[in-house]
Structures are given as C-alpha cells and as structure tokens.
Design goal:
alpha/beta, 7-stranded mixed beta sheet, 6 helices, globular
Length: 225
C-alpha cells in the first residue's frame, strides 16, 4: 500500500473551504484533499479507453473543485465541441466552476425528495431535452453521500440508449459525518443496484487501496444504458 503524498503540486485551499477553517479534521485536511484529486484521476484511463463511444453531451455529478471531464489528460479525448454540464450544490464550487471554466452548472441537492423532477426540468432549461439526451455521465467519489439507487434511476432516464455511465467509488471513504444512509454498503451492492436499474456492465475493475485512509478497494464501473 502506497502512502507517499506530495501536496505542493496541488492547489487545495479552495474558496469557501479554507484549510485553516477545516471542520472535518484529517478527513478533509490537505492530504485528504490531495487523495481526493488523485482518486478522481483513476477514472481518466477508462474514459480515454472508450473515446469512440463518448458522444458529445456530458454530465458530471459532484465535480466540486476537481472536474474530471475537464482534466488536462482528457483534452485530446473529449471534443472541444462537446456540451458539458455539471451538477453541483456547493455554492463556492459553483462560483469557481463558472469563473474558471465558464461552465454550465445545475445547482441541486441530490438528497432533496424533489431532485429527480428538478434535474429533468433543469436539464431541459440548459438545452438537454427528450430528443437530445445525455451521451455520457460521470459520477466520481459522490455515492457515499447520497441515495445511490435513486440517483442511478434518475440518471438512467436522462441518458441516450447506448450511453455510458462512468462510476468511481470507494465504499465508506470520505467524510463520515456527511455519509448518507442510502449509500452503497459494498461494491457488490453498487453493482447489483446498477444492474437492477437497467444498466449493463461494460467494464469493471477493482483497484487495490493506495492510501491507509481508504477503507476499501476502489471500484471502477463503466456501465451502458
């Protein structure tokens, strides 16, 4: 298990989330934020591998300050003409995304009971309608904080047939006080939940724990509607 973390190359003192006023201790200190960035990048090779199937309309759920879809490593993979939409509910992250990327951002709380209908309405307002559904959806390191079955069901209805859903998740890893009772309880739970909602598994990989703080091995899923 590797535990070497170089923090100086990463900017993690984010607006509204100062390291000096961090209320979550070592669960969200500088090293934890760097681990989050490194963990998010584990999805990049899988996205690149399926370049030919990505399409041109993307939704990334919960990018915070580290949008995977806009990673430098994907600049030759995702077309510059792509329509990219973010779903984020942190006001500081939303402002940062808009300032730095002139991004299209939907601000919704996934845990709100009205989320499913609100997302469909918001996407329509952003130019995504029933004739122009999403080609590709990314969910990286978000599922511990939400009712994952509800989210998968919602996402399924908003994707094109044959569209790809990329999931990057470590069970029970992150900030425990913010975890949802509706989170996946195991990798098998997550896989079964996705299949039950109608997705087919295109690719699956278990990545062994890299850091001591990671509670379980990382699961990467590439799913097809």
């Amino acid at each position: 298990m590797i535990e070497l973390i170089k923090t100086r190359k990463y900017e993690v003192d984010w607006p509204g989330w100062s390291l000096l006023s961090n209320q979550f201790g070592d669960e969200f200190d500088e090293a934890a934020r760097v681990r989050m960035i490194i963990g998010g990048k584990r999805l990049i090779p899988f996205i690149a591998k399926h370049k030919a199937r990505l399409g041109k309309s993307f939704l990334e759920i919960g990018p915070f300050f580290n949008p995977v879809v806009l990673s430098r490593e994907l600049s030759d993979v995702i077309s510059v003409n792509s329509f990219i939409l973010f779903l984020e509910n942190d006001p500081f992250a939303i402002d940062w995304l808009k300032l730095n990327f002139n991004a299209n951002v939907i601000s919704l709380d996934i845990n709100d009971p009205a989320f499913s209908n609100a997302l469909a309405t918001s996407m329509f307002n952003e130019g995504v309608d029933t004739k122009n559904l999403l080609d590709c959806v990314l969910i990286s390191q978000v599922l511990n904080y939400i009712d994952f079955r509800m989210l998968l069901e919602t996402v399924y209805t908003l994707m094109k047939p044959g569209g790809l859903l990329f999931i990057n998740n470590v069970i029970d890893y992150g900030i425990p006080p913010l975890f949802s009772p509706g989170r996946p309880r195991s990798n098998e739970d997550l896989e079964e939940g996705a299949i039950n909602k109608g997705f087919k598994i295109v690719e699956k990989e278990i990545i062994p724990r890299r850091f001591r703080k990671e509670t379980n091995d990382r699961l990467i899923l590439v799913l097809e509607k």
